[in-house]
Amino acid sequence: MGKINGCLKCLFIFFNVVFAIFGCLMVYGALKSSAYNHQLSAVGSPNMVWGWVFALGILGISCLGIYAGSSEKLILLKIFAGFMAVGMVIMMIFGIIIVVERNKLMSNIKNASSEIIEPLMEDQEMRGLLDTIQSSVRCCGIGSASDWGDTIPNSCACSGGGLYGGYRSSECKERPQGTSGPSRIYRETCSDFIMTWTTFFFQIAMGICFGFAVTALMGLLVSILMIHQVRRYDSAGGASIAMKSY
Q1: Which candidate, 100, 115, 106, 103, places its Cα nearest to that of 147?
Q2: Strands (E) located in 94-195
Q3: Cβ(192)–Cβ(141) under 8 Å?
Q4: Among 64-68, 123-127, 129-133, which range has the highest average pLDDT?
Q5: H/E element holding 184?
Q6: In terms of C-beta density within 10 A (0-12 exposed, 13-18 middle, 19 or more buried), how is residue 178 classed?
Q7: 21 pLDDT higher than 60
Q8: Whether the Cβ atoms of residue 147 and residue 121 lie closer than 8 Å to each other
Q9: pTM score > 0.85 for this model?
């Protein structure tokens, strides 16, 4: 007979396995996102180091929880409970940081200046990504078409309405003087689209942080209950087992 209630133990281990898998996925996501770390930092996005710390922390604590629940060792359960208490506070702090960073990033994108845009446009991967966005969303540039310099790509080309108006003519405008490329380009910039999706991803990140804070609280309560059961079992000793067998 185990020291901890069987259903509680299985539930505890199951959720730690789920979070361990989630931690592995986060490590993979952090690895993929590292390629864009420099570009994202240029517009004020949080450093990916925090993403690595978060992902590895989730993975490590989940593995500790799995072993602590399986072994039923009091010291490991206490360590896990301590991590849950600290993790709950850290997740709340991370959630607040993400809210602040989101507002900072939104301000940088909305008031896009040449100091922010030029480093982005020098990167070929970012130029290719923006080119794809322009073709799909019907926009041109981040802050303006001038972000492309002297040569505006064909993805900015607008075919609505012609020179004298007509259907969708309001979407188009003449290309800036002194530039080459399509004669008529999209009037709208891509900043609104970028801001919408950036806000969406930040909301997901905030949901994850505050969700993990609640989960950490639940993990803390469950681990305290498990510690109580182990202590009660150890204090009762073999007599308790003998009485139940009898």
Answers
A1: 115
A2: 172-174, 184-186
A3: no
A4: 64-68
A5: strand 184-186
A6: exposed
A7: yes
A8: yes
A9: no
